[in-house]
Amino acid sequence: MLRVMARPAFKNKRRNPYNFLLYSALQRCGVDVREYASSALLSSPWDILHVHWPESLLETGSYLSARWSEGKYLFILDFVRRRGTRVVWTVHDLKPHDLVYPELETRFWAAVLERLDGIIALTQSGLTRAVEGFPRLQSLPAFVIPHGHYRGQYRNDLSRDEARQRLGLAEHSRVITYFGQIRPYKNVPRLIECVRRGDDDVVLLVCGRLSKRANLETELRSAAGEDPRIRLLLEFIADDDVQQYLIAADLLVFPYKDILNSGSALLGLSFDRPILVPNRGAMQELQNIVGSDWVRTYDGDLDEAAIRDALAWAAAPRGSRPQLHAFDWDVIGQQTLAAFQQICGGPAGSGAVDAA
Length: 356
What we know:
The protein is 39% helix and 15% strand. The protein has 13 helices and twelve strands.
């Protein structure tokens, strides 16, 4: 039985169920998956150490504490790799988003990348950018395994009318929702400005937690002004409430300046909602897989015309739900298991490129 220790594995389910869904699928494939614990990792052999957001280890408070965490983790990586454990990184981002100690975190990121035995990217464009940005990765086994969908993860038992009644939205209003964590690169103030300059019957729901280290709330509230069409829900949305903000929407918009992948886009599609996204690598791939009936892209900066055209497009009838078979978790579990098995097939740190 393949033994995998992951950081995180299951403990972040409430904040982001991605890891829980991935490792639950791996368990169904017969893999022994455990939550990261340094004592357990050091005391017994493991085939794979799977890491996702390595910089989160440094979010420990003081600079001295972060330095201690850096040294401890790099020692652990060196120790377990000498013992035969392969270290695999899933590429969610190409750089830390919320830097507390920029110099330390940049150095730590580079040091972790030097200790990898394989990488998994969520999109082909993400893999290409990762290898271009970090040439050392060219020598590693590399795999493209998509982010899975969220069907069945959240309640989905409201009608559009019921969702709107709960939120106090008029039946005739055209509703746009932005859903997901709010960071500077996600460009939410631009979306607010475009809606305010657009048609009077459009309502915008901005739903999501603010980045812990970017002072965005003032900018968002300034962009919204006193416009009653703009509703800011700058907080974590409870699982049972997720459905109402998505089902009430005619269109979901994700106006990112930069995009490697988007779980929020897949969340919207999981609720059968058309989405508007920038015409950039990962989103082009998503459109190619799901189809232009459900994924619409725009070029350049988001503007009122792009939103107006997308709302008209979203209003057109659709004969079936978006096809998300490529994002099924059991398929993803099998793909991830195959990647781990291939990475374990050679000496640690000496794999050949195998880009899927």
